[in-house]
């Protein structure tokens, strides 16, 4: 009987399932698929609403004592409206990755990238963001994935962002139907690296 392996999904409200029950969030939907395929993996939902990359640097420590066989990192989008520069976001994400590598060197890693749809950034904040900052933010995910040889989901919200009937009333967070699409986006990349 193979050992049950842990998949840590570490992120913000998009991973936590903001506005939904935990059973509707994409990590649980991935767990259901793993069960259906009788794959020996256990999902740990390490999502926290509103978390930033800096918050993640502090928070990752609580998960490190347990085995992490697969690490899915989904953080950074909350940095932009807070005025955190992309260079700092990139540095924070790298710190998180480095800590997981130090404690679990055999862990396989996945990075979930983000685009910056205008609807994600409140109007009162968007006027302070210039094109170079937004472009730099978009680029950090692919660069970090390449640098660390991580499997890469280019845009977690692909097929969901900006589509009203797939999001909650805030037009930012996916609803239950939207999370099914997020699960597909994750599974397409994750399934390729699982045993």
Descriptive labels:
alpha/beta, five-stranded parallel β-sheet, Rossmann fold, 195 residues
Proper CATH architecture: 3-Layer(aba) Sandwich
- The CATH homologous superfamily corresponds to SGNH hydrolase
The percentage of residues in β strands lies in 5-15%
Rg, nearest Å: 16 Å
Distance between the termini: 14 Å
Number of strand elements: 5
Sheet of most strands = 5 strands, parallel
Q: Which topology does CATH recognise?
A: Rossmann fold
SSE order in H/E notation? EHHEHEHEHHEH
**Unreliable residue stretches:** none
Can you give the mean pLDDT? 92
How many domains? The number is 1
The CATH class assignment is: Alpha Beta
Strand line-up of the largest beta sheet: 2-1-3-4-5
Give a written overview of the molecule:
With 195 residues, the protein is an alpha/beta fold. It has one domain (5-193): 3-Layer(aba) Sandwich (Rossmann fold), CATH 3.40.50.1110. It is built from 7 helices and 5 strands; from the N terminus they run βααβαβαβααβα. Strands 2-1-3-4-5 form a 5-stranded parallel sheet, with helices on both faces. α2 crosses α7. The longest helix is centred in the middle third of the chain and has 18 residues, at 86-103. The radius of gyration is 16 Å and the shape is globular. The two termini are 14 Å apart. The model has no long low-confidence stretch (mean pLDDT 92).
